Each structure stands twice: as C-alpha cells, then as structure tokens.
C-alpha cells in the first residue's frame, strides 16, 4: 500500500495543473469604466515648470529663448506661455584702492525671459535640461522651478496711479462702509 501512495505523491509534487484565469485590472471603483485608466499618462509628470533665463545682452537672450522654445516644441513639450519681465537697472561703482573716491561708475541692465511648460513627462525633462545647459551662452543664467503664484505676480507691473489713489483713500479714512437707504 505504501508503494501505491509514493507514485501518486510524486505526481502531485511534480507539476500542478495550471489553469488560466483572466485577471481584470480594475481602477478601484466598480462604477468607473476601464478606458479611463488608459487615458492616464504612462510616466509621472511635472504639472507646471518655469524656465527662467537672465542676462545682460538683450539680443543673445532673445536668441536663446527662441532656441529653448524650439527645443521644447521638438521634444513635444507643452509651452503654455513665453513672457518677458521688465529690465532691472543696477548701478555699480568702482572705488580707488583704500579710499572712498569713486573711480568709475557703471549702469547694468539685467533682462529676464521666461518659458512656462505644462505637463512635462519625467523622462523627457532631464533631456531638455541637458540640452539647454549645453547650449547656454556665456553670461546667461538658467533656472528651472515649479510655477507658483509669486511667479505670476512678478509678471505684472503695478499701476503707479492706482497705488497712489489707494494710498490717498487710506489717508482719508478708508472706504466708506455706510449704506444709503
């Protein structure tokens, strides 16, 4: 009887029968259709990135911005916006050694351009950044950061007249809160 059990035990241990079972990949909800899962991106994405370039030479900066815009389109990145910020003036004074006498004075103008990229795939971003850094002209700085509300506010120049009127209204006691009946 022991001899009869051993061959059947060997058969049971050798190769269990494999039955094909179709496993359905569900998105977690019974009420959502399966095709919604296929619409999601294959790779993680950066929602919104600001590519900021600054430099002292205006034509060189414009040319580099045009290059970056073309590179982004070539890599099929979504360029949602390109804009310039007002130039910033800086005054630099050179002093004579060991004195307070001004030897020379310079006025430097810093220009800034921005590209806003949306839904950037994570594998494409390093390629874009490497090419942008390798083509970076001398005297131009490149900075990439996530888009924030501060970036949007810096874009707009405040209206001097409107700010003066608001300050005058505050000096007069603020806006009137009484309602007429």
Written description of the protein model:
The protein is of the alpha+beta class. It has a domain at 53-156: Ribosomal protein S10 (Alpha-Beta Plaits, 2-Layer Sandwich). The chain is built from 6 helices and 4 strands; from the N terminus they run H-H-E-H-E-E-H-E-H-H. The protein has helices spanning 2-14, 35-39, 58-74, 124-134, 149-155, 160-171; strands at 45-55, 78-95, 102-121, 140-146. The chain has a 4-stranded antiparallel beta sheet, with helices on both faces. A hairpin with a 6-residue loop joins strand 2 and strand 3 (102-121). The N and C termini lie far apart (108 Å). Residues 8-13 and 15-27 have low confidence and may be disordered. This is Large ribosomal subunit protein mL48. Keywords: Ribonucleoprotein, Ribosomal protein. It comes from Drosophila kikkawai (Fruit fly). It holds the Pfam family Ribosomal_S10. Residues 50-145 form the Small ribosomal subunit protein uS10 domain.
């Amino acid at each position: 009887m022991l001899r009869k059990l051993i061959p059947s035990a060997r058969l049971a241990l050798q190769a269990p029968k494999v039955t094909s079972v179709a496993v359905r990949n569900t998105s977690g909800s019974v009420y959502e259709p399966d095709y919604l899962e296929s619409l999601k991106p294959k790779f993680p994405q950066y929602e919104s990135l600001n590519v900021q370039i600054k430099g002292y030479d205006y034509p060189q900066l414009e040319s580099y911005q045009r290059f970056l815009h073309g590179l982004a389109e070539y890599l099929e990145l979504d360029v949602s916006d390109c804009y310039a910020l007002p130039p910033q003036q800086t005054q630099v004074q050179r002093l004579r050694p060991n004195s307070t006498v001004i030897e020379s004075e310079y006025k430097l103008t810093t220009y800034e351009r921005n590209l806003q990229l949306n839904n950037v795939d994570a594998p494409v971003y390093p390629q874009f950044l490497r090419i942008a850094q390798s083509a970076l002209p001398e005297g131009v700085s490149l900075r990439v950061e996530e888009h924030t509300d501060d970036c949007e506010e810096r874009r707009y120049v405040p209206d001097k007249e409107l700010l003066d009127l608001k300050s005058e209204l505050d000096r007069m006691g603020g806006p009137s809160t009484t309602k007429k009946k």
